[in-house]
Amino acid sequence: MTEKSYPKVTVVGAGNVGANAALLLLLKDLANVALVDVVPGVAEGKALDIMHMRSNERFGPRICGSEDYAITAGSDIVVVTAGVPRKPGMTREDLLSVNSGIVRSVLDAALPASPDAIYVFVTNPLDVMVNLAFSLAGLPANRLFGMGGVLDTARFIYAIAQETGAEPGDIQAMVIGAHGEAMLPLPRLATVAGRPLPEVVDAAAIQRIVEATVQGGAAVVNLLKTGSAFYAPASSIARMVAEILSPSGQTLSVCARLAGQYGIEGTHICVPVRLGKAGVEEIVELPLNPDELAALQASAAAIKSQL
Q: Is 183 in contact with 175 (CB distance < 8 Å)?
């Protein structure tokens, strides 16, 4: 019996987000995974643990781990989760400085090994890191983008479901803009079982939904005390990878580079796109009203001011 051939995905960073993303890629039968981490033994140990799990779960693809980028050669997709979270006493400038260095070192090692891959960045502060990576990598815009809007949208849909009692599958919604407190949930364009959200709930409920969405990540941090979200981010990565490898035509919010769309030029920011085997294959322009458009443009300007 011929063994199934799988695409190859590298996950850089074997922390909670990276390791769980790698596991989901395997459980969803999407790809073989190369897991890389700078800490000796961590990626290799987690990969071995997951391969032991394969005996029970019987998933088809395989995972290997190392601190050496040699295992990543010829990847179809490279997902970069490496980076440090913001810690008490650390300024945003400190975080930018540390993670900028990490992004540079990752590209220096990953690009020679997989020059034709699609690169998906998850490192925070996301929007700034994606713009930095694009300036360093020399890749076409369709092949380098970030995960942020998929996660924010998942939190938006959860908040709508909590407020309305609807199942997530019956909710259509989208969050655009910067991945952070400047994000732009779009309740006016959201629907519940085909009905516009403003017809389903009142203005006070919409305000609660928006606040829960914007504060979703912080809520997890406050509860965990010693870390940040990782299950939902990992799931968001897996969803993006699945859409790249087997396009369904669905629209996802992705930190993609705009070239005049929404009146924004030369900046990566979360907007609706269609992903496919070439990466970002189409940027979808929503019918934003003047206030929504102004908020998105202000979000882009804030990102650009940090570059």
A: yes
Catalytic annotation, residues: 179
Domain 149-305 top-level CATH class: alpha beta
The neighbour count for residue 223, using CB atoms within 10 Å, is: 8
What is the structure's pLDDT at 241? 98
Mean pLDDT of 244-249: 97
Q: For position 206, what pLDDT does the model report?
A: 98
| 79 closest CA partner among 6, 150, 25, 1 | 25
CATH code linked to domain 8-146:
3.40.50.720
Q: What share of the chain is helix, strand, coil (3-state, %, to 5)?
A: 50, 20, 30
Q: Give the predicted TM-score (pTM) of the model.
A: 0.95
Asked if 8-146 and 149-305 have one fold, the answer is: no
3-class DSSP state of 299 = helix
Residue 292 · residue 301 · CB < 8 Å: no
Amino acid found at 254: V
* Domain spans of the chain, in order of start: 8-146, 149-305
pLDDT at 303: 92
